[in-house]
Amino acid sequence: MQRLTSIQDLRNNRLADKTKSGYRSGLNMIESWIREHGDSSLLTSAGNINLRLFGYDDFLKFIEWTVRNTNKKPGTLSGYQSALRHYYKDAGIPVPPEFEDDMKGIFQGIRRLFADEDQLMSSRES
Predict the structure, then answer these.
(1) Residue 107: which residues within 8 A CB-CB, separation 6 or more?
(2) Beta bridge partners of 43
(3) How far apart are CA 99 and CA 116, in angstroms?
């Protein structure tokens, strides 16, 4: 059996539709944050994240704002990072190394913050 497909089709097929949908949702959140709180020059004319301009420090500002101002859980925040890394790879742009290295420590801190808050809340309820 011969399949008619392209390399791009194979790349697009590496993720389940649900994962793609989750990534798109995460990117939409980052784009909304850029429009409302960031620098609109970080968006393309189509309103997507301009990966040539949006850097690691911008992502850190987004994460910091999200932790301070929303009830997003650590898994959701980590999903934003995964979505952005996938977006870089899809665009053929190297993922900045900080997204791999420094983010591990930051997400450990986020998980610890949430665990401490959960423990405090449960001790108040007892």
Answers:
(1) 74, 77, 78, 81
(2) 49
(3) 25
Q: Which two tokens stand for residue 47?
A: 């309103």
Report d(CA 82, CA 23) in Å as an integer. Answer: 7
Whole-structure pTM over 0.85, yes or no? no
pLDDT in tens, 94-112: 998 888 888 888 888 888 8
Output the six-digit token pair for 12: 């697009």
CB distance 76 to 65 below 8 Å: no
Q: Using one digit for the tens of pLDDT, what is the confidence trace for 15-51?
A: 899 999 999 999 999 999 999 997 999 999 999 999 9
Every domain of the chain and the residues it spans? 17-125
